Amino acid sequence: MKPNDILTLDIEAIGDDGDGIATLGHTTIYVSNALPGERVRAIVADVAKTYAHADLDKVLRYVQSDSCEFCQHYKECGGCQIHRMEYRAQLALKRENVIQHLESAGVFMDSNLPATTGCKYQKGFRNKAIFPVAKNAEGEIVAGFYARRSHNIVPAKECPVGVQENIPIVNAIINHLRHYNIEPYNETTHSGTVRYIMIRKAFVTDEIMVSIVINGQSLPHHNKLIDSILTIAKNIKDISLIVNCDNTNRIRGNEVITLFGNGYITENIDGLDFRLSPLSFFQVNTPQTLNLYRKVLELAELTGNETVFDLYCGVGTISLFLARKALKVIGVESIPQAVDDAQKNAAIHPILNADFIAGKAEEIIPALVQQKGVKADVVVVDPPRKGCDKMLIDTIIQMRPQKLIYVSCDPKSLARDLKILQNNGFKTKHVQPVDMFPHTVHVESVALVIC
Questions:
Q1: How far is CA 95 from CA 35, 131, 369, 379, 443, in A?
Q2: Catalytic residue among 80, 119, 159, 409
Q3: Average pLDDT of 165-171?
Q4: Is 409 a catalytic residue?
Q5: In this structure, are 298 and 345 located in the same domain?
Q6: Residues 305 and 234 in one domain
Q7: 184 and 328, same structural domain?
């Protein structure tokens, strides 16, 4: 087997990254955009010792109607890996994904895993989109999405899971770069200016934020660009530059230069206003976020007498949700700008029983517990994909809160951390899968752990 070979394969399963899985002899072949039960014709992309990657060329036998293909970029982009799968089947797949990781890790639960909480909207649900900018093989400046397993950019002509304003805004920025000969960032030479375009929309208030990530401190003729962007939509309320001069793959930097607006937009969830700055973390699916946070609140079963730690708290969304039912909430977040937003969000209402601390949870919480004797009845963690830091897990084990509610975006790291807790006397009572990203294999989970 070698690159560019054409194979006929029967897809047996689907992997964690959304690729269909087939076997040929002793070789496992991962086929992009292929679904279990299908027979496909695939073109080999690369070959390793025990596995290979292949790109879908044609489906020879469908397991269901192919009429649900809804994006012209899906074969190249690979962002919506399972969009051809019926939505009910997507939800079932995500539930099975969580089950498999929990069982593989040896995590025991009191009850069966419930059905995945589905998303009301399967299109136009993403409130944030990030578009890398580069030159294509012909030397033309383009913006879009990375092709699967590469940093080659697929120019974006549409994205049905994003908001309708995204593509016109991206086109206006790219036209500006072309007109004024502003070079995009080059990952090889580390030269050039524009790295990414980030667009965020608040669904309830309808406000839009546009951020351009640059390798430098300024963007030539930015006033002209502001005028161009503002002609696209009246609800664009903030335009900024995010400075990132680091030689890394990290998308965002730490410095924000506001070109237009107040430096933030406002979103509302369940009657609570949240200020979102360019560097703030916020769940990407606004309508489904309400369901996610309501599940957290339900599992917390707050009576008004509890002290709650909300770790990796972002702009304080979960913190303020819980503060309405708790005695005290302490939120910890590593991004200072997000903590500033959280404090301002609390002051808007005002919510007086929520405090926010800037720093790494794995450093702040041990200090609170060991030096100041602060303990929590309920701990909520919403860590990045890699899961909780080991030091933080150790601190939670020592603190032994009545309840730990773990919000996870990765079943594998969730299962690993739940197993560690289980080995130290904790018990997983409930895990609820929540679909935040229709058409992908990604699944959010909310777990209740008791001591």
A1: 16, 30, 36, 25, 8
A2: 409
A3: 97
A4: yes
A5: yes
A6: no
A7: no
